[in-house]
Every structure is written in C-alpha cells, then in structure tokens.
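On clarity, I found the account of how folds are encoded harder to follow than it need be. For illustration, here is how one protein appears when written out as sequence plus structure tokens:

:::
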Amino acid sequence: MLPLLTWTWPETPIVVGLVVVLGIAVRWIIVRAVKAGVDASLKRARDRNAGHGSRADRILAAATGVNGARHEARTRTIGSILRSMTTAVIATIAVLTILDALGVPLGPIVASAGIGGVALGFGAQSLVKDFLSGMFMIMEDQFGVGDLIDTGDVTGTVEDVGLRTTRLRDASGQVWYVRNGEIARIGNRSQGWSTATVDIPVAYDEDAPRVVGILNKTMDAVYADPKWETVLLQRPEVAGVEKVVGAAMTIRIFAKCAPNQNWGVQRDILERSQEALRAAGVRGPSIIGPAPE
C-alpha cells in the first residue's frame, strides 16, 4: 500500500515551485550554452573552409563545400540531441526532487534503476560499445555519406552512417554492414586531398635527363588542360628516376589532386606520357635484354 503524500502548507508548494523554476532556469542556461557552442563551431568551420585565392585553395574550398554542409548538419543535429538530453535529465531530476518533497520514498526507485542499469550493461555490452563508437564517429566527423573509406577489413563508399552500424558498398557493388564498435581504424580517402602516383617505365639505357624533360613538358600540358582545372591542386611533379630493374628504368610522377580524384588524373598522365615518349623516339623496356652494368 502506497504511503500518503506529505503536503504541508505553504512549505510544500514553495519547494515544488522553486524546483520547477530552478529546473527551467538551468535548462535555459544550458540550452543557451549549447546554442553558443554550435554557432561558434559553425563559424570556425566556415572560416577554415574559406578559400584564399590560389588555385589549390579554390579547389579545396569547392571540394569541402559538401563537407561543410555535412559538418553544419551534423553540428546542428548534435546540438539538438544535447538539448533533448538536457531536457530529459533536468526533468528527471526535478520529478524525483518533487516526489521526495511530497514524501514518496525514492529508495526502491533508485535501487530498481541501479539494478536495471547493471543488467543492461552486462547484457548489452556490444550494443553499448557500438552506440558509443557511433556517437564519437559522428561527432568527430571521421567520415560521412559519400566518402571512400578503408576500415581495415572492407574498403568502400559510405552509404549510411548510423549509431550502431555503418553501411558500405565496395567496388564490386557488394553491400557491407560494419558494426561501429568493431572498427579499430579508418582511412578516409575523401578528406583533404589525394595523390596520383604514376610510374613510367623506359629502356634502362635511355638518357634520363632527356626523358625527364619530355615528361615535364607533358605535365605542363596536363596542368594547363581545362578539364583538370578543378581537380589538380598544383602542377604534376616529375620526381625523376625511381628505380632501375633489369632492362627497365622507371620515372615517377606525383600529382596532387582534389579528394578522391586521383584515378582519372593518373590515367590521363599515363596516356599522354606514352604518346609523348613514343613521338620522341624513347624506347620502352625490353622483355629480354642486357642488364645494366
């Protein structure tokens, strides 16, 4: 049988009123603080993503435009979650305080909540781990929808990011569901910039400075091509001789590109380099030939 509620006039109404007013005031302060933090985070992100005039800055600013919008949506979502959690926590504390003021014994309620929490912790450890990992992934913006990521076991494009699982689609079209708590490391190929690495093999006895000069002229043409204007961050660099193995001398080229745009640049550099070297009479490596002395 439930005990009778304690009601003392005017002490009980005053306590209840103070608890309600204090709860409303605390919630207002915390919500204002969360809103200020969200606005400050969005301002810093806009300042960081603003281009400064150079070709690389303009390309990266354009490439991060989607990421900026994603960051803004994520930040506002997190702010909304924090406000909802604040309301729930303050409301729970206020209700318990009012029940205590009315003489309701809180011991059984607190004991039941503690036992339920322990049981939930033991019975759903992996689920809690997945949820916590998912929250940190979203808050830290480790990846987002459309990013090409490497989770260690699976490499693919992110199609959905949830609190418990992340859905990926690999190059073959297969869909993978990866539990967030099982992801130990993440390599994101869609953030920042990417690099195209191209190796050009020629005969080992060709004149290396001449070959490098031909390739440099080719890279000038690649950099000046309008179709790569929004992809190449800077002129492709001919690094020089990378290695000499058997009858082959390999010349390496690097090209700094917009995020996840290195594959098309790499193919174009290979095609143009082959045409330029063939037109200049530069021989390719022989399958069977004398080794360099």
Remarks:
- Confidence is low (pLDDT under 50) at residues 288-293.
- The helical segments are 11-49, 55-101, 107-123, 125-140, 208-224, 262-279.
- The beta strands are 148-150, 155-161, 165-169, 175-179, 187-188, 194-203, 237-245, 248-257.
- The first strand starts at residue 148 and ends at 150.
